[in-house]
Each structure stands twice: as structure tokens, then as C-alpha cells.
């Protein structure tokens, strides 16, 4: 069993004003006011944490960077290891969003160690979850598969819907990437159901995106596009800038797999502009890869395609994305063979 989803990153007085579905413009306003009115170092740490998360979700990188550091310094002044862990979790999540995966792992590992000294079980759980997600994005499944399962078990034990949804989605993504679409679809659909019943609109929208991905891979593009449209409504209503860009990138994938290459090219272009605007290099590089593949299908020049793939391979190597590099290698091999790049 599980209860209504909640947002433990909104702490102190903010926990009474904000919830898991609060728009990030509302979070900015409430957190900014709380920071201005804070009387203690711990209050400043909590307000700055919420401020950092709002800026991060809105794609405002410098503001998010300044806010999580303010939160950490204030937490250190207060001598509170849990508050310090929360700040480092925010900083590590921002680093991952910006494609700095090695830094993300360092900050999140530090957060895990600090939270182990404190009493906030959720701070420890969120730091572990962030560490597991970073490893999964890098394609290091052997290192993080067990951690995902352990976090799912903890979520079930304590009735925490957000943890359950996050863990299920991560496990589903690994099954999807390893070709087990049946299991991936089962887990994504279960995550969407739990998120919906727990009132977690954001978690449900992300899970629907996963469902759409698998349905597309199984040859049902129309249903996949309908689910992405549904998810987009939620992302827009909550001002989830990065999530919206990833949703558009996924729409490009669905269109490409269906053979609608011109529509895919245009959609990848939209996603690339959105990722560039919020300076999110991982999403931007993945969108560029979609553009390269779409142009190739539309008759793009062979040498130009190979040059772009080589550049993208260097980008993915720098970020640390194993699966993306494998896709680039497969695409390059098909171009060299005189065919066209594979779908992912």
C-alpha cells in the first residue's frame, strides 16, 4: 500500500504551502519569500533548497547553482547533516541535468554519506535514488540494478508512492534498453497507475512517456503519440521545461520509428531548441542524433552524416553515455554500408 504522494524537498513552513503538483513558478514565489523571511540558518537552507529545485526544473542553471550552494552553506552553518545532504542532492541532480555525470556522482555520493550521519531517511533515499539514476543514464546497469530494486522495496515498505514510481520507471528503462519490452511496458504502466492513484501528476506524466516509448517500439505509434500529448499537458501546466523538451524528443523518436521522417526532423528541431535554451547538453545531443538520422532518411549527404556522427560520438564520450555511443556506432556502420541509421 502507499499514501498520497508528497514532496519532501519542500521543508519547514514550505511543506504547508506547496505540494508535489505545485507549479514551479509558484514554488519560486513561495521559496523566495521564505528565504527573505528566514530567521535561522536552517530556515535559509530549506528555502534555498526549494528555490534551487524550482530554478533547476525551469532550466535556469545559474540561479539553481547559486541556490543549492546557498542551501548547503546555510545547512553547514546550522550543523545539520540532513539539510547538507538535501542541498548536495539538488546540486548533484543539477550536475546530471547539465551532462556533468562524474560531478553528479561525486556530489550524490557525498550526499549519501552525509545523510547516513543524520536522521532523515528520505534524504538518504533520495540521494541513493539520484546516484542510481546517474549510473543508469551512463548505462552502468550492473552497478545500479540492485540499488533500484532495493529502493523499490523501501518505497513499498514505507508506502512512498514517488519512490515506488521512480524505482519502477528506472527498472523499466533498463528492461527496455535490454530489449525486454513486455516487462518494460508492464512496469511503466504500473508506475503510471500508482502515480495517478497517489496524486503525483508529474510522476504519472513521466511514466506515460515511458509507456509511449515502448508502445512505439512495439509498432503502435498512434497510441504512443496520444500518450505523449497527454503527458505534455501536465508538463506545461507545471512549468516543467526540461521534461517538456524530453517529451518532444521522444515524440521525434516515435515519428522516426513510424517512418514519418519530415515530422520527426521538425520535432527533433523543436526539442533541440528547447534543450539549448536551458543548456542541457545530454538532451541536446540526443536531439541532434535524431536530426542526423532523420536527415539521412530524407536523403542527406553521406559524408556530412558521418561527420556529424563523429562529432556526436565525441560529445557522448565526454558526457559518459554508453548506450548513445552504441547507437552512433550502429548508425555509422549502416551509413558506411549504404543503408540508413537505425532507430533507437
Automatic annotation (TrEMBL):
SUPFAM superfamilies: TPR-like. It comes from the Bacteria. TPR repeats lie at residues 165-198. Pfam families: TPR_12 (PF13424). The keyword Magnesium does not apply. This is Tetratricopeptide repeat protein. Keywords: TPR repeat. Signal peptide: none annotated. The lineage of its organism: Bacteria, Bacillati, Actinomycetota, Actinomycetes, Kitasatosporales. It comes from Streptomyces oryzae. InterPro entries: TPR-like_helical_dom_sf, TPR_rpt.
